[in-house]
Known about the structure:
Layout: E1 2-3, H1 34-59, H2 74-82, E2 89-91, H3 97-102, H4 107-114, H5 148-162, E3 168-173, H6 180-191, E4 196-202, E5 205-206, E6 209-210, H7 211-214, E7 231-235, H8 239-256, E8 260-265, H9 283-290, H10 296-306, H11 312-335
Parallel strand pairs: 1-7, 2-3, 3-4, 4-8, 7-8
Antiparallel strand pairs: 5-6
Helix pairs in contact: 1-2, 1-10, 1-11, 2-8, 4-11, 5-6
Amino acid sequence: MADTAKPKGGTARSSGSRRRTRKDTSPNLGDESPDTLLDYYRRMLFIRRFEERTAQAYTQARVGGYCHLNLGEEATVVGLMTALKETDYLFTNYRDHGYAIEKGMDPKRVMAELYGRSDGVSKGWGGSMHMYDTESRMLGGYGIVGGQLPLATGAALAVSYKGGDEVVMCQMGDGTTNIGAWHESLNIAKLWNLPIVFVVINNFTGMGTTVEMSSAEPELYKRGAAFRIEGERVDGRDVLAVRDTARRLVERAREEQTPFLLEAWSYRQKGHSVVDPAKYRTDEQRDTARADENDPIHLFEAQLTKAGVLTDEIRDEIAAAVKAEVTEAADFAENSPKPDVSTLFDYTYATPVPNESRRMPADPVFAE
């Protein structure tokens, strides 16, 4: 096991009292092409602006249901997705917008799905938590905590059974490491030597409870040890560190046909969902989560500026292009038609099922 970004001071009683320092685990920026670095910056900024626009649309009642944002996790999202090949599979939890876009879904169709419109990636019936696209091999978006783990493990079994070279990545939050599906899935994955990388996004708070209050072993990358699964931790604020660590584990899973566990830690800038005011946080915890020193975009921007890769002119140009693209996605969603009510049951089952109920709420229980 390896901790490539271990916080200073060990385990504290709460995430707000942790004193974390930025350990430089990134390659030298000089080893990267300026175009690659600027591309990562643009993608991170796009996710940030897309999510901010989503939050705005939610307050305007354009987005319904639950809605969970990737604010503060942009470097982790871009780093993880860069580590995958197009043919690799991805399963995520309900905080899935950034992953959907990074895995190859059209941002306009992602926004349309958020709006519940028929041009959405799930034709408007899935919404925020259920992004799904077989072409890009992003197989959900799951609203049930840990619901994706057995399915991702099953997908890895299918890859192994067919003798393919694809890898499955299964993303989850820190709270998922305490449920039954976690233990069952990791056990089977190691027992059957499946090509899967389990990724825990640790933002120190499972909904409103800190990791230390809910996990006897709060260093989550160690929790695969019971199944003899090698684990690593990485600074989730550092896009290059995430990319390199994830890429190494993904390629090892591909070559060695065995599972791995990766913990990426970062700070969730706001509450669990759009409607969560996060009153369970102290003022110190709130300020820590929103501080520039913990904002992945601010950190990367400062790095690129210092290295001479990002100038004021380039930054303004990228910002304007990102704003225009996000506006285009929102306009596309706004103008997309709503699904017809008659299609409500069209995708309940993959194939016809005898005696399937298609009764609408106002219909009588029994036909006259």
